[in-house]
Amino acid sequence: MSELRDAAMTSKAWPFVEARRVRERYDAHAPEKGHVLFETGYGPSGLPHIGTFGEVARTTMVRRAFELISDIPTRLVCFSDDMDGLRKVPDNVPDREGMAADLGLPLTKVRDPFGTHDSFGAHNNARLRAFLDAFGFEYEFASSTEYYRSGRFDEALLTVLERFDDIMAIMLPSLGGVNEARRESYSPFLPVSPKTGQVLQVPTLERNVAGGTIVYEEPDGERVEIPVTGGNVKLQWKPDWGMRWAALGVDYEMHGKDLIPSAELSSKICGALGSRPPELYNYELFLDENAQKISKSKGNGLSMEDWLRYASPESLSYFMYQKPGTAKRLYFDVIPKAVDEYHQQLRAYPGQDAEKRVANPVFHIHGGDVPESRMVVSFAMLLNLASVSAARDKDALWGFLRRYAPDAAPETHPDLDAAAEFAVRYFHDFVAPTRQFRPPDARERAALEDLRARLAAWTGGRDAEALQSEVFAVGKAHEFEPLRDWFKALYEVLLGASQGPRFGGFVALYGIDETVALIDRALAGELAG
Questions:
Q1: Beta bridge partner(s), residue 52
Q2: Are residues 167 and 239 in contact, defined by beta-carbon separation less than 8 angstroms?
């Protein structure tokens, strides 16, 4: 462990770069609260999406990295801003008309259109927690509604009231692009109307710092005085963010690149309240298949459920680890690559020294307790096997796998067993509908006939490298230039795709006789027909 710790102190892996920033915050001495607090924030105005998972996963990676280089205890709080008023009905929920009647109410007072919880906020919070629990995250869930109503924010809210003018001086310049009426009506306090229960965006008309109250005007014209404590008000979200950092003593938080200006304002507000803002890290956004930002209200892009239907949670964590500062497409076609790269890193880990281990993504995915990969066949290969065999379930693939790797079994290779099932699903949902076989041209036909003859006479067993060399030899003999055109032809004619696996490995897995039969079908026009 000491070797890993030493390596971590200079590692360029981004979780350790971030962890060292947090360590330097306290110069290796524990803060007065006795721990370092990591926070992630979640706005439950829409259903949880995969970006929410990514934020918790990445923050967890930094937390684990910090725990390796520091003995200071840590906590991770996942905070839900569920007291925010519903401003828009999400596009991807049932009973949108019914929800529209609850506009303006706190999310924990909005009806649950799914009928499973007391409120829409509670429903989305439950979904978020269920997914985070399924991934094994260690976190404490925090509800904005509970924190406001229980009085946990009361002291900080009274400080906001006392320093109202300072906060207004920070916020008003940021509203320069907004109409004058918005600037005139702005207040960091949003009263929760005792008449309607709605979170009101109205001016603060009077302030009583000694009494801890504000005066505002209801839509019907009545002037009302309410305390800023006990859940009677909700702060605008930027002041709320800064207040939360100050009240809880947050030391580290990530946020999307689109929130950089908001984070800067919240940091100033946190400072105005007399506290040090947390160390912040902004990450690039995820994009859908059309290069549009993923939105929880639109429900575009991949959901967590989508990814877990086709691949393991560890492969999703691997995807999240990669280059958080770079925008990435998050759609179904990224899954196979993520699965195979994850297992490549698992296989490499045992032979690596400490420096390379702490830079390996699987170290951060598994918190240093890295498992062994039992994937004797790549996910890409399983997809091609599912394709040519028209497998309806994983048992069909195991018929090939047992011949290729006699020592493999579902019981001893659970990751391979799960991947076989994922591959069948992925093939039928995404590959089968888009396959386009084509007939070979004259030169390709001659090369395929040559390859068929060589395989029919093959006596070298299931040696993938030897078979790959034989396939190479056929391409060279028939003067394919560049040689990749020969492999592209094999994929398009035999597999119905423009890309594919190392063909020698595919033949070894699928079988010599089976590949000969596949070539016969292609030459007879049965595949393209």
A1: none
A2: yes
pTM: 0.89
Of 262, 286, 310, which closes a domain? 286
Contact of 338 with 319, CB cutoff 8 Å: yes
Top-confidence residue, 44 or 94: 94
Q: What is the pLDDT of residues 178-191, one digit of tens each?
A: 566 677 889 999 99
Residue-wise pLDDT tens digits, 472-491? 999 999 999 999 999 999 99
pLDDT tens figures, 140-170: 999 999 999 999 999 999 999 999 999 999 9
Which residue carries 């360029």 as its tokens? 12
Domain containing 122 — which CATH number? 3.40.50.620
Q: What is the helix (H) or strand (E) element at residue 65, kind and residue range?
A: helix 50-69
DSSP state of 88: S
Same domain, 73 and 152: yes
User: Has residue 373 been placed in a domain?
Assistant: no
- Give the C-alpha separation, 169 to 259, whole Å: 20
Distance CA 90, CA 88 (A): 6
Coil, helix or strand for 187?
Answer: coil
Q: Which domain holds residue 275?
A: 2-286
